[in-house]
Amino acid sequence: MLEEENVVVLEQGSVPAQKIAKAMASPTAGDLFNTLSDGPLTATALAERTGFPLTTVKYHLNNLLDADLIEVVDSRWSEKGREMKIYGVKDQVVVLAPRKRPDVRQIVERYGVIAGAVAVGCGVVLAIPNMLSRFLPQTNPGVAVAREITEVAPVFDWAAFVQNAVLIFFVGAVVVLACMMAYEIYQTKKRR
To answer: Domains in the chain: how many in total?
Structure first.
């Protein structure tokens, strides 16, 4: 009996599903996979048992590994001192499911989470100048000199600049996210 963690559900057309399709498209790969189902083997032993050239076996083993259908279960050292990987079929059931189309609620939730993350990030950036002002000394011996200088040349207000820049970024990000969300909702409804 397989446990739930050994069941892999893939959407049709997803990258993992395409890798499986590519790996299993060849009858040779299917023969190698079925042979490994009998028990773990090295690439050399697999080539001997199936009669396929070692280069062909290694090519298909790499594709099956990339598709996550087999795994290296162990390794051992040959008589010549080379490490030999032992391959076995993964203990899993792969289910291919039709591609799930997102509904409007999922789209709004996804963009809401992104907008919330942007808002929190902007809030943190806005809080930094306030936090720094608490740690910086309030009294400055050069205040009298600074007052004379400010009468001649005004001091640039970094806190106001940062606040305005963050506000502009936030409004722009919300507008862009709203446009992206509206477009995705439009495309979803158009496909139905």
So the answer is: 2
Do 21 and 89 fall within a single domain? yes
Structural domain containing residue 28 = 4-97
What 3-state DSSP class applies to 50? helix
| Overall pTM surpassing 0.70 (yes/no) | no
Whether residues 92 and 123 fall in one domain: no
* C-alpha to C-alpha distances, 137 to 30, 106, 140, 160, 177, nearest whole angstrom: 73, 49, 7, 20, 41
> pLDDT tens digit string along 18-76?
888 888 899 999 999 999 999 999 999 999 999 999 999 999 999 999 989 899 999 88
Instruction: Judge whether 3 and 93 are in contact, CB under 8 Å.
Output: no
Indicate the helix (H) or strand (E) that contains 65: helix 54-66
| Cβ pair 73, 84 in contact under 8 A | no
Question: C-alpha angle 185/109/97, rounded to 5°?
Answer: 75
Write the CB contacts of 52 (distance below 8 Å, at least 6 apart in sequence): 28, 31, 32, 46
Residues in a beta bridge with 9: 95
